[in-house]
Amino acid sequence: MELQKVDGRKARGEKKRRAIVEATLRVIERDGVAGVTHRSVAREAGVPTTAPTYYFATLDDLLIATLLWSAEELCDDMLKIVASGGCAREIARSLAKAVNENRSRTLAEYELYLLAGRRPELRPAARRWLDRAVEVARPADPVAFRAFLAAIDGLLMQGLIADVAPNEDELEPIVSFLIRGCDDLTAAPREQ
Amino acid sequence: MELQKVDGRKARGEKKRRAIVEATLRVIERDGVAGVTHRSVAREAGVPTTAPTYYFATLDDLLIATLLWSAEELCDDMLKIVASGGCAREIARSLAKAVNENRSRTLAEYELYLLAGRRPELRPAARRWLDRAVEVARPADPVAFRAFLAAIDGLLMQGLIADVAPNEDELEPIVSFLIRGCDDLTAAPREQ
DNA sequence: CAACTACCTGAACAAGTGTTCCACAAGTTT
DNA sequence: AAACTTGTGGAACACTTGTTCAGGTAGTTG
C-alpha cells in the first residue's frame, strides 16, 4: 500500500495534463494546427489560461506532445486498415470511414505528417505506422507492399480534397488492384 | 498604339501584385503557411508593410491567390511526373527530384492540399492535376491509373517524412510495380 | 502649365499572442 | 501542529498581428 502510494497532487496534475493534450487535439481537428493557442486550448479544456503554460514550457512543446500522442492513434488506425485480413472490401471500408465519419481526425493526422516534414523530431512518430505495418504484415513482396502503403496515403489525401468523399464501393476496385499479387499480405513467413 | 496603351500606373501595380504573390510562395516554402503574415510577406517582397493589404483585401485573399497560382505549378510538376513517357525510370527520377532538390516546393504543395481539405474553394485547384492527368493519359485501365496517382501522392508524402529521402533507384521498382498492366499509360485511344 | 485621378504608404490602433510573476490553495511529510 | 512541496490562476507585460486612414506621390489628361 505504501509502496504504490503516489502524490495525490501529481495524480491530479497528470490527469489535467492529459486533458489539455486531448483538448489540443480537438482544437487541431476543428481548426487545424493554426488554431492552437494557449488560450484556445485552455478554453476548450475548461482550464485557466495559464494552465497550458504551466504544464508545457512552451506552446511548441504542447504541440509536439499532442502530435506524438496522436501519432499512436494514427498508428492504430492505419494498422487497422492495413491488417483488415488482407481483404479488399474491409480495407476499402476502413478507408471510406476515414474520409467520411472520421474526416476531421484524418485531416488532423495529415497535419501531423506535414509538420513532421518540417520538424525532424516528429518524423519517427509520423513514420511509425509504416514500420509497424511492415512488421505485422511480413509481406512476401516488399515492393508491392510499399506501393500499397503509399497508395493508402494517396487515396486518403485525395479523398480529403474531393467534393464528395469516395465511398467503399468506389475504393474497393482500386484496393483490389493494389493487393493483387500479394494475395495474402500476412502470408510470407510460412514456406520460408 | 493608342489601342493597347494602358495606364502605366496600373501596369506597375499589377507587376507588384505578382511580386507579392511570388514572395508569399517563397515564405510558404520556407516557413509553411503558418509563417505567412502581411509583414513577413512584405519583408520578403521588399515592399512596405501595407502593400499586401492594399492589393489583397484580407490576408486570406492573399493566401488563396497564392495557392491558386501555385496550384498551376503543382499541376505542371505532377503532369511532368505522370507523363514521363510512361517509363518507370523517368517517373522515379521525377519523384526523387521532388523530395530532394525540390523538397521545399513539394512541401508547400502539400500545404495546399491540406488547406484545400478545410477550404472548399481551394479544392478544384488542388485537384486539377488529377483531372488533367486523366485527360492527357487516357488510361486504358482507369482503376490501375487511379491507384498509380494515389501512390504518387503517398510516395511523395512518405518521402518527405523519411530521415533520408529516397532516391530514384529505390523508387523505380515501386513505380514499375504500379504501372505494370497499364503498359503504356498514354496508349488508349490513338485516333488523335 | 495646372487639374485630376489613381496608386501608394508611414503612422497608428485595437485585438490577440506567448509568457512571466506572485500570492495563495491544496496535499504531503515531519 | 508547522514546514515543505506541488498545483493554481488572475493580473500584467512586451510583442506581433490584421487592418485603417489621412496625407502624399506619381502618372495622365486638358
Automatic annotation (TrEMBL), chains A, B:
SUPFAM superfamilies: Homeodomain-like. It comes from the Bacteria. Transmembrane segments: none annotated. Residues 37-56 bind DNA. Gene3D superfamilies: Tetracycline Repressor, domain 2. Pfam families: TetR_C_31, TetR_N. GO terms for molecular function: DNA-binding transcription factor activity; transcription cis-regulatory region binding. This is Transcriptional regulator, TetR family.
